[in-house]
Write a structure and sequence with these properties.
Elements: H1 10-14, H2 20-31, H3 37-49, E1 51-54, H4 62-73, E2 87-90, H5 95-101, E3 108-113, H6 123-135, E4 140-144, H7 147-151, H8 155-169, E5 173-177, H9 186-198, E6 203-205, H10 217-234, E7 239-243, H11 249-263, E8 273-277, H12 280-293
Parallel strand pairs: 1-2, 1-8, 2-3, 3-4, 4-5, 5-6, 6-7, 7-8
Helix pairs in contact: 2-10, 3-11, 3-12, 4-5, 6-8, 8-9, 9-10, 10-11
Length: 305
């Protein structure tokens, strides 16, 4: 079955309610899966390639962004078998510094936008922020939705804002942040996912990382199932980004298992799956060392991410 993806009515056509108990039970079952050594090493490598290495702190500066860009390109400088990450995610003001530092590399520049993390500014200001970040070289935009509008039932308003954000992105990819910790139910998470995808999102993302709870396996499962159903309905494949509180390699592997079991191998690629990460990367590197040498590395071996 095909339909126009730019149609808020998709929410009503393939919406439906979420079985809360079922979603949590399936997420728990997937989390219990164990991986054999070879599969685990492959998964750790993939998790590195899917990382959006992120810094969103008030103390961020061009110098700190340049340092993190070096980490993004060469996570383990002495081991060239370790892949680069997918993107470096920073505030809009620091896009020029990131673009310069990553010049010639395959690491994308991702910028948060639209009055991140609250989204509480006039639409024209949010759109202008996207346009400026894109003009200065960001090839990916992480944009927040108006959670207040969604909670008030204004689906059309949320849809139209995402459409405006997508238009402002030009040829940049748009990742729409739902901030699931503020939505209050799995039904709203599914509805927000469908609205964002219908409006043109290239990715849907769990959280800003500034609100608790952030990413959780049941929430990611609900979003992945919405992506699957939207792809079946429209023919368009949208990516999933999980972010906020993912600090261990074990957690990252659990999300990879969830994506594989729900969406299939087509989503096991940086083009369709991302992990927002700050402290995660070093644990991935340490676990890769352990899989290869059977001993843990000293954390001091790696630069601070």
């Amino acid at each position: 079955m095909t339909a126009s993806t730019n149609d808020v009515e998709v929410v009503h056509r393939i919406g439906g309610s979420v079985d809360e108990v079922g979603a949590e039970a399936r997420a728990a079952m997937l989390a219990s899966r164990s991986l054999k050594a070879e599969a685990k090493l492959w998964g750790l490598d993939l998790a590195v390639r899917c990382c959006d290495l992120t810094t969103l702190e008030g103390a961020d500066s061009p110098a700190s962004v340049r340092q993190l860009a070096s980490k993004a390109m060469r996570p383990a400088p002495l081991d060239h078998s370790i892949p680069h990450v997918a993107a470096l995610c920073i505030y809009p003001r620091l896009v020029p510094a990131a673009v310069e530092a990553l010049k010639g590399s395959a690491v994308a520049v991702a910028s948060v936008a639209t009055a991140f993390p609250s989204g509480q500014s006039a639409l024209e200001l949010r759109v202008a922020e996207i346009e400026r970040a894109h003009a200065e070289g960001a090839s990916e935009i992480d944009s927040v939705i108006s959670r207040g509008a969604l909670l008030a039932g204004d689906d059309t308003g949320v849809y139209e804002e995402v459409v405006a954000a997508k238009k402002a992105c030009g040829d940049a990819h748009l990742k729409v942040i739902l901030e699931t910790g503020e939505l209050g139910s799995y039904d709203r998470v599914r509805r927000a996912s469908l609205i964002a995808m219908a409006a043109g999102a290239d990715f849907i993302k769990t959280s800003t990382g500034k609100i608790a709870p952030a990413a959780t396996l049941p929430v990611a499962l609900v979003m992945a199932e919405a992506i699957r159903d939207f792809a079946d309905f429209s023919g368009r494949r949208v990516g999933l980004k999980v972010a906020g509180g993912i600090r261990s390699a074990k957690d990252a592997l659990r999300y990879l298992v969830l994506v594989h079991e729900t969406l299939g191998t087509e989503w096991l690629t940086p083009e369709r799956f991302r992990i927002g990460a700050s402290s995660l990367l070093n644990d991935l590197l340490m676990q890769m060392d352990k899989q290869r040498s059977k001993t843990y590395s000293d954390s001091d071996r790696y630069t601070v991410a």
